[in-house]
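Readers of this paper often ask what the protein records in our data store actually look like. Below, we set out a record of this kind in full and without editing:
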Amino acid sequence: MRHYSRVKSAKDVLIGVVLVGTAFMSGCNADLLGVSSFETGLDKISLYGPSTVQVGDTVRLSASGSVTGIIGYLLIDRIPDGKFAVSDPTIAAILPFNPPPGDTTSFASVRVEGLKIGRVEVTVRARGKSATHSVEVTPATP
């Protein structure tokens, strides 16, 4: 008949799990959560907002990103380093949208101002990824 030593406490089990996990993560150089290098963890960008704006009016577009790794299903990247551009600056202009001071929850956003009738592509780029959103500029209603 075999006799096994009993685990002395839950603390011993926790220490063992931490040690094994640390050895695995450092020995295999694995990043299962996708968070060891957050700057390169951006998987894709989404750009969303209204698809039409009248001449002389503005609409707000916002961008958010998906993060790679297992934790990416739970986190959204606010894309604070997103750079916006418009395909034809004679049809629509990109205007900054600045969140209130101290706001750390806002997504990267811009205002698109309709200048003349036509269609443009608004593009956001960050960390080697990009997304586009079409905006049609329509005549102003009297």
